[in-house]
Amino acid sequence: MDMQVSFLDRLFESGLLIETGVDGLYGRSGQFEDVIAAFERLIDRIGGADGAEAIRFPPGMNRAYFEKSGYMKSFPQLAGTVHSFCGNDHDHLSLLQCMEEGKDWTKEQKATDIALTPAACYPLYPTVAKRGPISQNGGLYDLQSYCFRHEPSKDPARQQLFRMREYVCMGTEAHVTTFRQTWMDRGVEMMRSIGLDVEIDVANDPFFGRAGRLLANNQRDQNLKFELLIPVTSQANKTACMSFNYHQDAFGQKWGLTLENGSVAHTACVGFGLERIALALFAKHGLDVAIWPEAVRKTLWG
């Protein structure tokens, strides 16, 4: 039996995940949410002293900002937009008739000014840019958001709507690369403290098309992206549960992010896939939190 399907079925049977009829779109039990809340408190204990500014954006972002970000050039296969009915009474009758006849009623829908947030940090860059120059000592931001990526799958670790916790650093090249290395070291220690087997490897984003393959190769060649990998549904094909990304000055150039001396800011981020980390814990320690190792429970819940 497919290990991914087997684990997903067990999660459904235990009630930890709740089936909705759409692959990658699941409800979560109170126990599942408690694990995520406990892990987020661990993140706070590790990173809280750094003094990051906490910002929470909704799971939708300004579509104009989304378009400017360039996401559609690189990842059109993952993008999602919010559409809504914008017609008159006659159009409404037509919509209802389509539904009655079992036809496609979504043709009456039109795009709104909202796109679904693809990563927690995407609304941050235009927000910070509006504030003016960043301190020469750099800026540090703590984010958490539901994110959307259109990749339906039976793999419970590949969800279409999921939560991402991020720390984003803006500053000089030396500043942000030091930040990234610090969190790579912290990430390994954090996961080991909760009994998870991890490895870090160079990675690339899922860029689209022929040009995307060149971008992916370039990203790997320059070591711009690393992932922390944990067995969830497979020992052979481990799941990326954290990512460590150095964007160079790409976002600085795109959004006009500058430091007080006028130089373009470099950016880096560390991202935690919260559902994936919870799933890794359930896969390793069992579906009943009460029987998890005492050391793991103590680290998470004190």
From TrEMBL:
Alphabetical list of InterPro entries matching this protein: aa-tRNA-synth_II/BPL/LPL
GO molecular function: ligase activity
Record-annotated membrane-spanning stretches: none
Keywords carried by this UniProt record: Ligase
Gene3D superfamilies found in the cross-reference section: Bira Bifunctional Protein, Domain 2
Enzyme Commission number(s) from the entry: 6.2.1.n2
Key word DNA repair present: no
CDD domains: Gly_His_Pro_Ser_Thr_tRS_core
The keyword Ligase appears for this protein: yes
Designated name of the protein: Amino acid--[acyl-carrier-protein] ligase
Origin species: Peteryoungia ipomoeae
Species lineage: Bacteria, Pseudomonadati, Pseudomonadota, Alphaproteobacteria, Hyphomicrobiales
